[in-house]
Structures are given as C-alpha cells and as structure tokens.
Amino acid sequence: MPTEPLSAGQKALQLNLDRAWYGTIAEIGAGQEVGRWFFAVGGAAGTVAKTISAYDMTVSDGIYGKSHRYVSRERLEQMLDREYASLLESLAPTRGDATSFFVFADTAATRRYSRREDGVGWLGIRFQHQPGSEASQIVLHARLLDPETTGQQEALGLLGVNLIYAAWSGRGDPDPDALVTGLGDQLSRDRVEVDFVDVSGPLFQRSDVRRLNLDLVLEKLGRAVMFASDGQPVEPSRGLYKRPVFVLRESFTPVRREDLDMLAAATEQLQEAPDREVAVSLAEISTADRRAPDDVCADLLGRLDTLAAASLPTLVTDIGELFRVAAYLRRYATPRVVFVAGTQTFAALFREKPFENLQGGVFEALGRLFTRGVTLALYPDRDPRTGELLRASTVAVPPEYRHLLRHLLDNGLIHELRALPARG
C-alpha cells in the first residue's frame, strides 16, 4: 500500500534526531524560511551548526564576494563554497570522524510591492554521504507562483526542507536518481515549478543529469525543461530571456531534414535585424501525447541525442495546447515567438478539431495563441498525390474556416514561408 509523504515537520524532526548529520543553513532574500522548520520542531541543536541571512547587498558582498546577480547560480555557488569551507575548518578537526557535514543555501526573490512577477530562487546543498567523504552537490532552480509573498516564502521553505531531506535520505540509496521524487512533497505545481536540477560528486557518478531533468516534467514538478544545443540541461531563462524564439513542435522520431528546413526557412525569412545575433531556434517535444511509449524517459533521451547531433536546443514540456506553450515562453519576456509548422499539419488542426474541449473551439484557441508578439509561420508541404507545393493561402481547410484563414494571413498573424532549394 502506498504511504503518505512525510510532512516538512516530520522530515525536519528526523534530521534533527540524527546526531551524525550536521551543518549550516544560509539564506538570502526570502527570510529564514528553511531554517525555521528545524527550530520549530525542536532539537535543532542536533542538526544546525549555524544559520545565516544576509539581506543587505553590501553585507552579502562582504561575506561571499561580488556577483553580477544576487539571485543566480553564481551567487549560490559562492554561498556554498564559503559556508562549506568555514564549516570544515571549524568542526572537521573535532568531529569529522563521526559526522557527515552539509551546507544548504538558497538565494531567492519573492513577490513584493516593487516586484509583482513570479518569485524565483536557486537552492543547493553540498554534503558528505559519509564522514570524511568528498562532497556531493545538488543544485536546482525554481519558480514561486503563489500570488502573495507569504505563500511564496512558505513554498520556498517546504522545497528547501524537501531538498535537504532528499540529500540525507539518499546517502546510501543505490538509486540516487530517485532524489527528484520527493522534492514536490506538500507542494503543487500551481505553487512551485522546478525547471532545472544539476548534481555532482561521488554519490552521483552513475547519474544522468538529463534524466533527472526529464523527471522534473514526468513527475509533475515542472511544466518544461530545456536542453542546450549540446544536449545538456540549461535553466530556461538562461537560454530564452529576452530572445526571439522560433519553435517547431514535432515528435522528432526521427529528426527529418524537412524539420531542419522549416526552422532554417523561418529564421532566414522572418528574422528582423536586431534578432540576428540572439534569436533561438527551438525544438519542442510534448509528453502530453497519449501514444507515449512505455519507457518514456529512455525514448526522450534518444530523441535528445538526435537533436543534439543536429545542434538544436530543445524544450521538453507536458503542455498539450500550443497557446499554453506561447504563454510559457512569454514568461521570459521574449519579444517574439514564432511557431513553425508545415501547411498540412496546420490544416489538420481544422479537420481533427483538437480544441473541442475549449468552449470557444478553434476561435478561442487561436485567440489565445495570437497574443502580442506571437505569430505562426507555415512551410509549404508537398501534396503527396501531385507533388505540388501546398502554400498556406491555398491549403484545403473546411469551408467555414476559409475566411478565418484569410483574416490571419491578411493581418500578418500567419506568414507564408518560401520553400528552400532542394538539396543535392
């Protein structure tokens, strides 16, 4: 029978009762949200050597050194470096033979009067899996989605306790990849989305960091994870922030030459002058496909390998509707989002009617898709019977939608791409 996940209080108490697990909790920007759990349940002296908060930027710089951004992986690594070195220097000579040391750190920005957008945070833990061992490390990035500051702070505290507990409970686990499973305990994806995780050190020598990031989506901790052109995970805002994006949604089984042609045509024909150095061509794979294989993760890893071989960055989501993908990308203040599709794929939307679950049907779906800065680029497919190119303006759609298609074309919401010359 499945058991209920432990509460944050139960986890903190278990940790406090383990006299061989001892360390520092350092937090910047959102209060002592993680540390307070260990004091609230009692027995914190058994686990907490020190807690520290540094809210003033000058004070923070004095402790950890300068950083370009205070909510960043760079600042988190500075915190972990400084506090872990200090902890070992102070305590390793006297209790290092019997104690596994750890440092947890987070740096976060929550909603406030001068900042009304979603909260963001970097969290990490550096720890010994046994006394005297080389340190292992877990780092993750999260978005805090509660509408009120207090809710975002509470969610950060829960996520931090879950992370510390995952490191502690997984020290002797033969399957360290299972660490993702408990990160979302007592949290919903409406409150927190984890969109990046990285691990290092001896405990994770067998771990595939790509699989861990895919697990964030498959275990419903995040809606999307991103992989750079070399196939390695990247925090989405690093790859997308304020950059025009050209997106091709496909299964990529396999990656076809036509897929690459469509993206190349869109970027060549639709890029504006300021875009040329920063625009991103992006493959998007949705796990919402009901025909997904039994071993979804292995299947996705194979597709990521193929896309990396084509040097194509990839976004893996569990988002079904294209307009929700657009909303996700707009989080990063992307000035333009261009979805690329073949003309037959576009025409099939009208025939197969995948929007019937929406009250307004295809009209509502298109209205929600074509928000400011979002357009659709259609690449001419060949008619399988005649071999002729099927352009957006001539593709067959049901009669009731012909005027709608004409409206979208005339108003520049749909662009007709020119076919690239045939390759030899």
Structural class: alpha/beta
Could you say what the CATH topology of the largest domain is called?
A: Maf protein
What share of residues are in beta strands? 15-25%
Q: Please provide the count of β strands.
A: 16
Q: Major β-sheet, in short? A: 8 strands, mixed
Question: Strand order across the biggest sheet?
Answer: 8-7-11-10-9-12-13-16
Helical content (DSSP H or I, runs of 4+): 25-40%
Distance between the termini: 61 Å
What string, H for helix and E for strand, traces the elements in order?
A: HEHEHHEEEHEHEEHEHEHEHEHHEEEHE
Tell me the name of the CATH class of the largest domain: Alpha Beta
Write down the domain tally.
2
Mean pLDDT: 90
CATH superfamily of the largest domain: CinA-like
Spans of at least 5 consecutive residues whose pLDDT stays below 50 are none
CATH architecture of the largest domain: Alpha-Beta Complex
Rg, alpha carbons: 24 Å
